[in-house]
TrEMBL record:
Belongs to the TRAPP small subunits family. BET3 subfamily. The keyword Lipoprotein applies. One of its GO terms (biological process) is intra-Golgi vesicle-mediated transport. It is found in: Endoplasmic reticulum; Golgi apparatus, cis-Golgi network. It comes from Bos taurus. PANTHER family: TRAFFICKING PROTEIN PARTICLE COMPLEX SUBUNIT 3. CDD domains: TRAPPC3_bet3. Coiled coil: none annotated. GO terms for cellular component: cis-Golgi network membrane; cytosol; endoplasmic reticulum; TRAPP complex. This is Trafficking protein particle complex subunit.
């Protein structure tokens, strides 16, 4: 009998039962990590240099973010953020938790309040990953920056997101630097409101 709480299996001889705890989130997270690794590997084969791979990862992430924001808003019941600090809290405490199962810390606010860093103590995308020496300029998790840009653009916020530290490159933590560029105004055709 199988359930979400436990998985029971019968050995080939039919003599021993084994009960394993089964937590679907962790298994799907590992599957996602491995699938993402296969995607990055294929991109490295398809493109001649790491910069092109980085651009493709960002572009793919942007397209995911544009679509993911609808799911996020529907599932999270989060209302409109009033400022960039509130946006940072929602990103770290709700979005990252909902989709990656982690809660990055928010640090290094600029004096103007238009830049901050997300510190990921544990980046689930890099589990089981070691960068080869010939890919030292690859930004392996660049998809995340694209997701952030795409999702925030759909809620009228133009931002820049980039990795400034990465555990895959020997840094102690993974750091994504976020910078608010401008509020995007809706341009409605004349006569429509």
């Amino acid at each position: 009998m199988c359930s979400a709480a436990s998985l029971t299996s019968l050995h080939a001889e039919g003599t021993a039962w084994v009960a394993l705890d089964f937590q679907p989130y962790f298994y799907s997270s590992e599957l996602f990590t491995l699938t993402y690794g296969a995607l990055v590997t294929q991109l490295c084969k398809d493109y001649e240099n790491d910069e092109d791979v980085n651009k493709q990862l960002d572009k793919m992430g942007y397209n995911i973010g544009v679509r993911l924001i609808e799911d996020f808003l529907a599932r999270s019941n989060v209302g409109r953020c009033h400022d960039f600090r509130e946006t940072a809290d929602v990103i770290a405490k709700v979005a990252f938790k909902m989709y990656l199962g982690i809660t990055p810390s928010i640090t290094n606010w600029s004096p103007a309040g238009d830049e901050f860093s997300l510190i990921l103590e544990n980046n689930p995308l890099v589990d089981f990953v070691e960068l080869p020496d010939n890919h030292s300029s690859l930004i392996y998790s660049n998809l995340l920056c694209g997701v952030l840009r795409g999702a925030l653009e759909m809620v009228q916020m133009a931002v820049e997101a980039k990795f400034v530290q990465d555990t895959l490159k020997g840094d102690g933590v993974t750091e994504i630097r976020m910078r608010f560029i401008r509020r995007i105004e809706d341009n409605l055709p004349a006569g429509e409101e």
